[in-house]
Amino acid sequence: MKDKLLEVKKLSKNYHDLKSEVQAINDISFEIFDKEFVSIVGPSGCGKSTLLSILANIENKTSGEIKWNKEDIVIGYMLQSDSLLSWRTILENATIGLEVKKKLTKENKEYVINLLKKYGLGDYINKYPDSLSGGMKQRVA
Question: Residue 118 in 3-state DSSP?
Fold first, then answer.
């Protein structure tokens, strides 16, 4: 039997402004088991990105329960926009997560440089995001 990795029960998310409230997610429940491959599919505006942002602790839920059944879970996903910082080089953008976590070592930096080269971005390491195409920006992000 597979181990249950994640339990989500009755999850809801509402956005508010001064005049109205929008319900982005309403009463979603599901379970994910270890080693499962899961896809989230739906029309534009149905709450897919909101759900991922809540699971990654980027946004707060309005109500419901989220239970991770494993310690030290690390969540990462590609945002819809590339979110690169225009004043940082491609290498600096690619290593910002390591900097924030205080894990930017010489070895980790070399690993990132090798990844950038592998993904066809080696010639752009010291350039800035405005010199990249949209697809290249997504690869950096």
Answer: helix
User: pLDDT (tens digit, 9 = 90+) per residue, 44-84?
Assistant: 778 888 899 899 888 999 999 999 998 888 777 766 667 89
- Whose tokens are 């270890």? That residue is 34
Beta strands in the chain (DSSP E): 4-16, 21-33, 63-68
Instruction: Report DSSP letters for 49-80, one per residue.
Output: HHHHHHHTTSS--SEEEEEE-SSS-------S
Q: What torsion, rounded to 10 degrees, do the Cα atoms 100, 103, 106, 112 define?
A: -70
Global pTM exceeds 0.70: no
Rounded Cα distance, 127 and 93, in Å: 11
CA dihedral 47, 52, 57, 63 (to 10 degrees): 40
The CA-atom distances, in angstroms, between 58 and each of 15, 75, 122 are 14, 10, 30
Give the DSSP H or E segment for 48.
helix 48-55
* Token digits of residue 28: 């979603």
Structural domains of the chain ordered from first start:
4-68 (3.40.50.300), 90-140 (no CATH)
